Amino acid sequence: MKNRTIIIYKYSILFIVLFCHSCIYFRMSHLTNEELAWVEVYREGDSCFFKSNLGDYDIIVINEITIHNRINPYNPKLWNSGYDYTANACIDFDFITRNFSDNYFFIKKEIDEDILVFSSRLDTRASLYITPIVKTFTIDSKSFDDCILFDDRNSYLIHSKQNPVKSYIWSKSKGLIQYTLEDGETFQLTKVKPKAKERFIFD
């Protein structure tokens, strides 16, 4: 009876060890505060107002901000070892004044290269996992030295559409600050109306 108890105890310990081993991320990436600033420029519920060179107006609303940036490698939801955890964050937003769908700005920290990659979509213009060069742009005599320009060189049109988005500029400190349509009409950010609401953070 004593030997049987010892055997059961040993197998129990072995099961616990194997279970814990199967619930650990083997490789993980992590977003720094500096990198998270690309998406933390907004809060959920913020409204952004734009005015064009032709006198038209647009409004976008920030729907959701998700951040996956855990530090602890243990996750009891895992059942097989060898999983990788890639830190990422995303902003989803909608246009109130026009039919632009599936708009988002996404960042991901690669594990192997330890670099930050970007994906984004503004209506039918999209980019996927690019490593753009941050540039300086001057808009209405104001200079922004933390911008990414999305145009034909690093993005593409998902499908044909009349007067699609030709290019847009995303600032690390201001978010979306400008976008230009195919016909040359250019919308620039005029103000952001904040709405106090906590964003959801997931592991």
Characterize the structure shown:
A hairpin with a 7-residue loop joins strand 5 and strand 6. The two termini are 45 Å apart. Strands 2, 3, 5, 6, 7, 8, 9, 10, 11, 12, 13, 14 and 15 form a 13-stranded mixed sheet that branches. 12% of the residues lie in helices and 45% in strands. It has one domain (2-202). The chain has 203 residues and is mostly beta strands.
- Tell me, briefly, the overall form: globular
Query: Can you count the helices?
Result: 2
Taking pLDDT < 50 over at least 5 consecutive residues as the criterion, the unreliable ranges are 7-21, 197-203
Series of H and E elements: HEHEEEEEEEEEEEEEE
What is the radius of gyration? 23 Å
Q: What is the number of independent domains?
A: 1
Average residue pLDDT? 83
State which percent range the strand residues make up.
Answer: 35-45%
Structural class: mainly beta
CA-CA gap between termini: 45 Å
Largest sheet: 13 strands, mixed
Q: How many DSSP E strands?
A: 15
Helix content bin: 10-25%
In short:
The chain has 2 helices and 15 strands. It is mostly beta strands. The chain has one domain (2-202).
Topology:
Elements lengths: L1 H20 L5 E2 L4 H4 L10 E6 L4 E12 L15 E2 L2 E8 L7 E7 L6 E7 L2 E6 L4 E5 L2 E9 L5 E2 L7 E7 L3 E7 L4 E8 L6 E3 L1
Parallel strand pairs: 1-4, 3-15
Antiparallel strand pairs: 2-3, 2-14, 3-5, 5-6, 6-7, 7-8, 8-11, 9-10, 10-12, 12-13, 13-14
